[in-house]
Amino acid sequence: MSSSTSSTKGPEITKWHSKDGEFRRQVSSFRNFVQSDAAAAFPAEAGRYHLYVSYACPWAHRTLIVRKLKGLEDIIGVSVVHYLMGPNGWEFSSPDEVPGATLDEINGAKYMREIYFKAEPEYAARFTVPVLWDKKKQTIVNNESSEIVRMFNSAFDGLLAPEYRGITFYPEDLRQQIDELNEWIYDSVNNGVYKCGFAAAQEAYEKNCHALFQSLERIEEILKTNEFLLGSRFTEADLRLFTTILRFDPVYHGHFKCNLKQISTGFPNILRWTREVYQLPGVKDTVNMEHIKKHYYMSHTQINPLQIVPLSNGPNLDAPAVKPATRPY
Ligand SMILES: N[C@@H](CCC(=O)N[C@@H](CS)C(=O)NCC(=O)O)C(=O)O
Q1: Domain match, 176 and 152 both
Q2: How many whole angstroms from 53 Cα to the centroid of ligand 1?
Q3: What is the CATH number of the domain that holds 178?
Q4: Distance CA 80, CA 175 (A)
Q5: pLDDT digits over 202-247, tens only?
Q6: Which of 165, 185, 200 is the last residue in one of the domains?
Q7: Do the domain assignments include residue 314?
């Protein structure tokens, strides 16, 4: 599909807010599940599914981390878009042109939108990442990160080496607590930073910024006594929060005006926890701060028209995660 015809379809790429000035995230459209059962519509198979991500995107980043920590890299391939989201949305580039990016070896698309139209010619919503693609059925299985994370957590276990099979980030005994944390953290933190950054009215910005920092204070309290959000185990709740906190000082504090405090100077326990998560084996390989910074500061020209990218990458996450001397864990 040529980009000139495709660009007339779908919503305007930079139209982020509603009439009242509030940013509202659309609901994802493709909601099927890969299942371990061989008779399922989308059964777990090695080499069948392909993940489309942006290194910049916190939602896509969640799926990359679980793919890594669950040892799924040989089973599920990945394509990485260019950091810049232009008028035609996400675009593929060769790694020579943009280090870290890839071409689309699976569908040969130039733009992410072509993959959506291949799956659904009448598709009329946003062309978001992540996307989990089924090479056999030639369609999108799912484009909702929270669900892709759940699938990666267990659906492919039958294909994995024993050391990965037992790993779960959504253990039975913590499910209710994980779901409860996810709910308020999604609303006020993960999505909260976007509600600050894309607010088009002072009141909407202030309301969401206060709610964001109230939640950060609540998280800081939890991490004062807990190593991870729910104690000694790293769970899905940590994973989902991490991709937002990683971007906080270098991006959201300035670009999205989330500037009542910084993580590095204002939240010592969140900083300690961020370092612990970053230093879990494999996690830092999924972090590309150049894509993160350039994406936000250069794509959102409605809030940063000169596309200047600030220098700081945020706190040094390789520094030791210093636990308080009086730690109870
Ligand atoms: N609910 C989705 C949200 C994904 C999302 O909003 N991704 C952004 C990048 S951070 C995107 O691709 N935006 C493109 C657009 O809205 O046009 C998920 O969690 O998977």
Answers
A1: no
A2: 10
A3: 1.20.1050.10
A4: 31
A5: 999 999 999 999 999 999 999 999 999 999 999 999 999 999 999 9
A6: 165
A7: no
> What is the number of domains present in the chain?
2
Q: Which of 23, 57, 239 to mutate to test the pocket of ligand 1 (most atoms within 8 A of CB)?
A: 57
User: Residue 97, CB half-sphere, CA atoms under 13 Å: how many?
Assistant: 12
Residue 177 pLDDT more than 60? yes
Sign of the four-CA dihedral 12, 112, 97, 297: positive
Query: Domain of 90?
Result: 3-165
The answer to whether residues 143 and 218 belong to one domain is no
Cα–ligand 1 centroid distance for 59 (angstroms): 7
158 and 270 share a domain? Answer: no
Neighbour count for residue 45 (Cβ, 10 Å): 15
What DSSP designation does 23 have?
A: B
Q: What is the position in ligand 1's atom list of the atom closest to the CA of 26?
A: 1
Is the same domain home to 55 and 112?
yes
88 lines ligand 1 (CB under 6 A): no
Q: What are phi and psi of 105, to 5 degrees?
A: -75, -15
Q: Do 112 and 187 share a domain, yes or no?
A: no
What are the tens digits of pLDDT across the range 252-275? 999 999 999 999 999 999 999 999
Please tell me whether residues 151 and 53 are part of one structural domain: yes
Angle between the N-to-C axes of helices 268-278 and 202-225, in degrees from 0 to 180, rounded to the nearest 10: 70
- CB-count burial class (<10 Å; 0-12, 13-18, 19+) for 311: exposed
Of 165, 184, 199, the one marking the end of a domain is 165
- How would you classify the pairing of strands 77-80 and 49-53? parallel
For residue 121, report the distance from its CA to the centre of ligand 1, in Å. 20
pLDDT in tens, 44-103: 999 999 999 999 999 999 999 999 999 999 999 999 999 999 999 999 999 999 999 999
Our answer on whether the CB atom of 129 is closer than 6 Å to any ligand 1 atom is: yes
Active-site residues, by number, are 57, 194
Note whether 215 and 149 are same-domain residues. no
Q: Determine which residue's CA is closest to atom 6 belonging to ligand 1.
A: 128
Give the position, in ligand 1's atom list, of the atom nearest the Cα of 85.
14
Both 232 and 84 in a single domain?
no
ipTM of the shown complex: 0.98
